[in-house]
Amino acid sequence: xxxxxxxxxxxxxxxxxxxxxxxxxxxxxxxxxxxxxxxxxxxxxxxxxxxxxxxxxxxxxxxxxxxxxxxxxxxxxxxxxxxxxxxxxxxxxxxxxxxxxxxxxxxxxxxxxxxxxxxxxxxxxxxxxxxxxxxxxxxxxxxxxxxxxxxxxxxxxxxxxxxxxxxxxxxxxxxxxxxxxxxxxxxxxxxxxxxxxxxxxxxxxxxxxxxxxxxxxxxxxxxxxxxxxxxxxxxxxxxxxxxxxxxxxxxxxxxxxxxxxxxxxxxxxxxxxxxxxxxxxxxxxxxxxxxxxxxxxxx
Length: 299
Hints:
The chain is α/β, with parallel strands linked by helices. It has helices spanning about 10-20, 35-45, 50, 65-75, 90-95, 110-125, 135-150, 165-175, 195-200, 220-230, 240-255, 260-270, and strands spanning about 10, 20-25, 55-60, 80-85, 100-105, 125, 155-160, 180-190, 235-240, 280-285. The longest helix has 17 residues, at about 135-150.
């Protein structure tokens, strides 16, 4: 099963707030509820029969794990997913619903990698990295390719950055398909390792960041850092309050559900730190815990 071609939506209200024409690539409508299925399905489909024989494994805070579990189920192989103990309940439930076998670990990158190594040693599964894998990056890049097909001549495109797989895929695609379009990364100020790495010229890992954007707590990977060094125009950071405000605006004005990580590039554009009159934004996912929303919808 291939990724679906997700819609591009617009909002006159958000255009007015940003003083720009905004084009939202709605990956919240993608299979498994996030853009991650693009990379996971491409990686799984590219495995040889020998590579796939024992299944696949990864570590994930939610969306990649669910996407990989679904892609593995569609190929008829097992998926072993290492998840931080702090992962939202609905994201764990999604992995289980797609047949993934979860192993919990402490919410640090070191714990993820150590636990994953143990799982791989026990199962002999093939590791599919959530973002530092060229096959995954290539799959993620198809979202921006579709966006450019529908919305040519964009001045800028903005994506959230955690590990950097989507950023790398977007930047590589943009260089080929629309080289005059500038690429910007957006991330929470409370998890600003990409921004600090960009400024320092070297990877500076996160240290257990605290942000509502749970999908962006992961440290920047090598492929994402390479994109930051060579292919993008800047990294914009936003506050937790700005993330919540942007998320609520999209819910209320566009009538669609996005998760906090998706709201990060929206917040970056609304604070007018992304230049241009035609701006593309990738809404990366819509997997939220409805019992723990960051705003009170009754107000």
